[in-house]
């Protein structure tokens, strides 16, 4: 195998490690990149090298950006006194896609897990408590997953914030938009019924 | 190799990009692991929450393979998500069963007791005394059962107030004498007398916790007890104070 072929094979092997790609799809992607190397591969390589050098965690909220403070935390218009607590950066990005929340975020970096021995120390909960004291926060919105681990974490944070006097709320749980009752599990129906509102 | 059974889900871990490895506690096959293909999909992931009651079919080419499960939900028990203490209770039950049970060894009596406790947790019934009795049953099942019938010193059945931390046998006030401070508390709730006040329940958990920590855990390779139990005990103590 020549050096050139080895490099391409190495690229395919690396690409195949990405989520959603296997060896065959990585091979297809690499072939596509090589065919479009001027229009696609070279700019992709440049931007990847740039992001690899500059990507970092926001020192306030835990979001990923290329500056010490992310664009959301740096935006004074988002200083609404509300902090939305999410498990992961992917959840933050999902909330931003919704464009419904105009406050700031706090990324925990995981959830409490009994089996994986993830305790409060492994999450960014102390940093959240510091922010509440420093940033004049009036409401903390717990946007954690409706799973056993997610809700265990939500209850833990709510309890940790009791003494701070800040209002603690959580996302509603129930019937999703476009959801049909017949296809919902009994737990979701129970939650929806408990959270019913005047129509 | 294949079988079908019902069981409660103890744990879920993602396996690759699309699958999950779950552990279920079943009546006839004990704690059993297996792969669920597509277990992290939007359709199946909501079913695979710890505490859920599942109908599981296990299949593998050889007995000692991990094998694959197909799962059908029977009862989700997600009602506990909004109840902080019950959620901690559910976490503690799942974590302790995961911690103490050997794989693929049936414990039908413990299964029935665990099922009843899970249902009480989901229903929000008065589950704390049941949890305490479940921990006693767990100790019994593992061979570390408490002998609370009569005093280890005097042989009497009256005024039993302590448990020996070494033998797990009851001790009366008279039998304890000056050793009382070194003995574990024996609240009435441990002997099935009433539902128990918060302080009695805390005493009971202190006693069962001692045997879990100093007898069961060392026998299982000296691993620390699951954090979930400590969190439950602390939360119950706080709730009792409030």
Could you characterize the architecture of this molecule?
The complex is a heterodimer of chains A (199) and B (242). Chain A is α/β, with parallel strands linked by helices and 199 residues long. Chain A folds into two domains: 3-54, Orthogonal Bundle (Helicase, Ruva Protein, domain 3); 68-170, Dna Topoisomerase Vi A Subunit, Chain: A, domain 2 (3-Layer(aba) Sandwich), CATH 3.40.1360.10. Chain A has helices at 3-15, 23-35, 37-54, 71-74, 89-98, 125-134, 148-160, 186-194; strands at 56-57, 64-65, 82-86, 104-107, 139-142, 167-170. In chain A, the strands form two sheets. A four-stranded parallel sheet of chain A has the order 4-3-5-6. In chain A, strands 1-2 form a two-stranded antiparallel ribbon. In chain A, helix 1 crosses helix 2 and helix 2 packs across helix 3. The termini of chain A are far apart. The mean pLDDT of chain A is 90. Helix content of chain B is 36%, strand content 22%. In chain B, the strands form two sheets. In chain B, strands 3-2-1-4-5 form a five-stranded antiparallel sheet. Chain B has a three-stranded antiparallel sheet with strand order 7-6-8. Chain B is elongated and about 60 Å long. Chain B folds into two domains: 2-76, OB fold (Dihydrolipoamide Acetyltransferase, E2P) (Beta Barrel); 79-148 and 186-241, de novo design (two linked rop proteins), CATH 1.20.1440. The longest helix of chain B has 22 residues, at 198-219. Chain B is an alpha+beta fold and 242 residues long. The chains are: A alpha/beta (199), B alpha+beta (242). Chain A binds chain B through residues 19-20, 114-115, 117, 119, 146-148, 151-152, 155-156, 158-159, 173, 185-188, 190-191, 194, and chain B through 11, 17, 46-47, 49-51, 73, 75-79, 81-82, 84, 87-88, 90-92, 94-95, 98, 226-228, 231, 235.
Describe the protein's topology.
The complex is a heterodimer of chains A (199) and B (242).
Chain A: H1 3-15, H2 23-35, H3 37-54, E1 56-57, E2 64-65, H4 71-74, E3 82-86, H5 89-98, E4 104-107, H6 125-134, E5 139-142, H7 148-160, E6 167-170, H8 186-194
Parallel strand pairs in A: 3-4, 3-5, 5-6
Antiparallel strand pairs in A: 1-2
Chain B: E1 2-15, E2 19-26, E3 30-36, E4 53-59, E5 68-75, H1 84-100, H2 108-123, H3 128-141, E6 160-163, E7 170-172, H4 173-176, E8 184-185, H5 198-219, H6 227-241
Helix pairs in contact in B: 1-2, 1-6, 2-3, 3-5, 5-6
InterPro entries (chain B): ARFGAP/RecO, DNA_rep/recomb_RecO_N, NA-bd_OB-fold, RecO, RecO_C
Family (chain B): Belongs to the RecO family.
Domain DNA replication/recombination mediator RecO N-terminal (chain B): 1-76
């Amino acid at each position: 195998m020549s050096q050139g072929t080895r490099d391409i094979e190495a690229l395919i092997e690396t690409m195949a490690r990405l989520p959603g790609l296997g060896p065959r799809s990585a091979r297809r992607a690499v072939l596509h990149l090589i065919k479009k190397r001027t229009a696609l591969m070279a700019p992709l390589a440049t931007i990847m090298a740039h992001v690899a050098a500059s990507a970092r965690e926001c020192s306030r909220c835990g979001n990923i950006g290329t500056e010490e403070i992310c664009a959301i935390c740096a935006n004074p218009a988002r200083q609404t006194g509300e902090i939305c607590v999410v498990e992961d950066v992917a959840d933050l990005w999902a909330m931003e896609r919704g464009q419904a929340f105009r406050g700031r975020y706090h990324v925990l970096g995981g959830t409490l897990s009994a089996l994986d021995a993830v305790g409060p120390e492994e999450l960014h909960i102390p940093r959240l408590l510091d922010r509440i004291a420093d940033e004049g926060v009036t409401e903390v919105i717990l946007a954690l997953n409706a799973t056993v681990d997610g809700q265990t974490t939500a209850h833990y944070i709510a309890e940790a914030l009791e003494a701070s006097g800040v209002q603690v709320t959580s996302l509603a749980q129930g019937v999703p938009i476009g959801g049909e009752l017949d296809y919902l599990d009994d737990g979701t129906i129970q939650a929806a019924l408990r959270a019913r509102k005047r129509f | 190799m294949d079988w079908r059974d019902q069981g409660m889900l103890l744990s879920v871990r993602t396996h690759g990009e699309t699958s999950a490895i779950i552990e279920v506690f079943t009546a006839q096959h004990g704690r059993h692991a297996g792969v669920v293909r597509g277990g992290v999909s939007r359709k199946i992931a909501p079913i695979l929450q710890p505490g859920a009651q599942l109908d599981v079919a296990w299949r593998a080419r050889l007995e000692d393979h991990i094998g694959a499960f197909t799962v059908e939900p029977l009862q989700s028990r997600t009602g506990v998500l909004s109840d902080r203490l019950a959620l901690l209770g559910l976490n503690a039950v799942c974590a302790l069963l995961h911690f103490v049970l050997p794989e693929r060894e049936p414990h039908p009596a413990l299964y029935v007791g665990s099922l009843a406790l899970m249902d009480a947790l989901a229903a929000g019934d008065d589950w704390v005394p049941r949890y305490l009795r479940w921990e006693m049953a767990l100790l019994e099942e593992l061979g570390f059962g408490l002998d609370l019938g009569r005093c280890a010193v005097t042989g009497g059945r009256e005024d039993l107030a302590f448990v020996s931390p070494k033998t797990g046998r009851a001790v009366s006030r008279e039998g304890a004498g000056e050793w009382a401070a070194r003995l574990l508390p024996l609240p009435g709730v441990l002997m099935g007398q009433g539902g128990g006040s918060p302080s009695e329940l805390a005493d009971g958990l202190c006693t069962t916790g001692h045997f879990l920590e100093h007898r069961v855990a060392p026998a299982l390779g000296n691993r620390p007890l699951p954090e979930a139990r400590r969190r439950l005990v602390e939360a119950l103590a706080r709730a009792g104070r409030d």
